[in-house]
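TA notes. Do not distribute before section.
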Amino acid sequence: MECDDIRLKFIDYLDNNLTAEDEKKLVDHIEGCEECRKELESLKKLVNEINENAENISVPEDFMDNIGQRALKIGPPVIKKKKAPFKILLIAAAILIMSMATVFATKNPMAELIKLMNPEPRITNTVNNGVGKRLNISKTDKNIKITITDVVADDIQTLISYKIEDLNNGKEYNIRFDDGIIIKERWGNQIKDTNIEMYTSLFNNEGKGILTLFPIDTDNKTINLSFTKLEAKTGDTTEIIDGNWNFQIPIKKYQGKSYNINATIKADDYVINFTKITISPTLTKINFNCSNGGKKNERINDLEDIRIVADGKEYKPYNFGHESWIPYSTVGYGDKEMTFDSMYFDNPKNVEIKVNRISTQITEDKPKEFMVKLDETSPQEFEYLGTKLVINDLKVSDNITFNLKQPINSSKFETLNIVFWPFNGHSQEKHFTGAGNYNEAYYIDKDNNKYGYYDALLIWDKIRTKNPVLYIANTSYKLHPSDGLDIKHEKFIRMIIDGYNKTVFVNGSAKVKLR
């Protein structure tokens, strides 16, 4: 099985829904493919964070079953990196993945994050500047009216905004993401096994939404879009309405401008090269690559808290249905890209790219191993890099559950890269599935102020100059043994730490002329 096929099965693997044959193929593959293994670990953390915040968010029951295909296959990629540190995953879980499904936010601060990333005002601004078109095409079925309000298209994406009105009861309906959209035309990359034949992303809240598609393949195109299922959620009950809301939508594509650039920022021997800027009506895109300057066992995970400044105006990284949002963006060692607010209507001639910090991954020459006793009910202490780690609340039944605590504000590391193996080694027949839920996470700044994770994101612009760093205080693990592993006869499991992540503050910049 190739990497793409393997990644399509990640969600089923995490949910223990694979057949024995498919699970064996996947385990065999990730044993020999570091990139897929790292990506799976990243996805485990992402899914766990969504589960951990279930009290704040309610999504369709089969949402995560469908995200596996979309999140790992769509382009530009949402998750495509060698190792995603915890902060990226939380943003992906809380914001990017939310934008890809019908989301019902009920509590702060998650609801406030959703409001912050709503692309609707940006679409309105784009149309008001003469790019795109205000349509106001309405169709009514089952006494529910859907109106296509605006369409904006450029060489990066196609955006269609809509609103839903219940003409009888005023109930709030949303588009059903997984099986409620049909688009007759086919263009761009296509997603297998879905009614939606191209990259599709939804921001859906309070009866209004944004449908995001690949850029159309011609300068002008009329597409046939049908909404066939809506849903309304009340508490734990989901009401599904079948219907037919069919639209013919005329689309005109606007071209952006691309500039090849050669800008470099160096930090602690790490090198960041910016190679291209594309300025389109809906967003700005920057291409870049990174190298570790010859550092052994060290590499850049992420560029963090990046800004573009032009003529005194600051442009932030942002998710318009594609990329990571404030304050982080993905990085790898090939050519990568990140997206920002659009500079199209400002038409800048000179820009400055600012990098405030980078997240680095340090890998051990030889992973550190610790033996965890399965028959020990009292806390077990371990030491890594002079820092005490504690495993407690350990229980063994059909699976193994426990908490892993670590001190916050450690001078040695911020987050750890940990796996758990059976005592006699990890194999196809004997292994664990499952991962940890990070259920205590804090940002601590240089003045030792502590912020809850989501609280910090909401006030990031106010605290970013204080160099806040993310720490994990507690992780809850649930390990599921494979069929060939009888944990009732096991005395130990192995905790393996192969490295850790640490922030490097850069405060570097590069100035570029756009010609």
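Switch to the second chain here.
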Amino acid sequence: LATLLALPVGMYLAEVYFNLGRWALSVAAILLLILSYVLHLYAQVRRSHTEIMKLYRATRKIATSIDLNTTLNLILEQARNLTVYNEGLIYLVDGQTLMPAAHLGPIPDEIRYREVVFGEGIAGKAAL
């Protein structure tokens, strides 16, 4: 969009300079910079709104479930909708051990069914 507008805006600023002088050019340039900044902020707000709505929908879906297994699987599915990943695994805490409770994607059995002690591996260190 900026590329499409560069030529007309440049022509507009040149016309302002030739007809009204340097002071008017400065005012016009400042107004265009302010407009550009406002449009940039609007785009950021719009992206943030989209992300918040995705989180709201995900939370709403997860909150409807009562069953633990269904809830854990919904968490993995909704997380996949919000981020990009191929496989996921949720652990539940049992004393000082993490027990695999739900998975999504092609996770090898030696990882999927392995209990992790606190402090062991990435998941165990994250649990501390």
